[in-house]
């Protein structure tokens, strides 16, 4: 099972993720974290989706290549988290919903690399990543 725990994020991202959740709540958004850390095996299963397994392609990263697989001192320390805004209590997957833009702006204000921003190399609205220069 991929983790949804904030504690499985990189320490710097734990702080940013909590700030992100607080600011989203203050803006009237109801945010669900769908994934923080996932194992290499789980990453490869996801990579197979849309290639050798049914479903739509959701990632270009194999095991160890995703920010969600990162470890620090032998422990999960994901460098990204995925979210979905809930509207009327239900996940709103349609990225045209304005709550996605508000959440994206809040993440970017905190210095996170939001893959839903216009011009992102691989557009992935749920994905917020710790900048590479943070160790
Ligand atoms: Zn992600």
TrEMBL record:
InterPro entries: VanY-like_core_dom, Zn_M74/Hedgehog-like. One of its GO terms (biological process) is proteolysis. It comes from the Bacteria. Residues 8-70 form the D-alanyl-D-alanine carboxypeptidase-like core domain. Coiled coil: none annotated. Gene3D superfamilies: 3.30.1380.10. GO terms for molecular function: peptidase activity. It holds the Pfam family VanY. This is Peptidase M15.
């Amino acid at each position: 099972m991929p983790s949804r725990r904030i504690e499985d994020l990189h320490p710097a991202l734990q702080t940013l993720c909590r700030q992100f959740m607080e600011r989203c709540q203050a803006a009237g958004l109801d945010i669900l974290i769908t994934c923080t850390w996932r194992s290499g095996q789980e990453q490869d299963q996801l990579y197979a989706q849309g290639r050798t397994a049914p479903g739509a392609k959701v990632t270009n990263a194999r095991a160890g290549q995703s920010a969600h697989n990162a470890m620090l001192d032998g422990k999960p320390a994901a460098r990204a988290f995925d979210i979905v805004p809930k509207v009327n209590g239900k996940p709103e997957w349609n990225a045209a919903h304005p709550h996605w833009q508000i959440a994206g702006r809040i993440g970017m204000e905190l210095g996170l690399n939001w893959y839903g921003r216009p011009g992102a190399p691989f557009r992935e609205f749920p994905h917020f990543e710790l900048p590479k220069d943070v160790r």
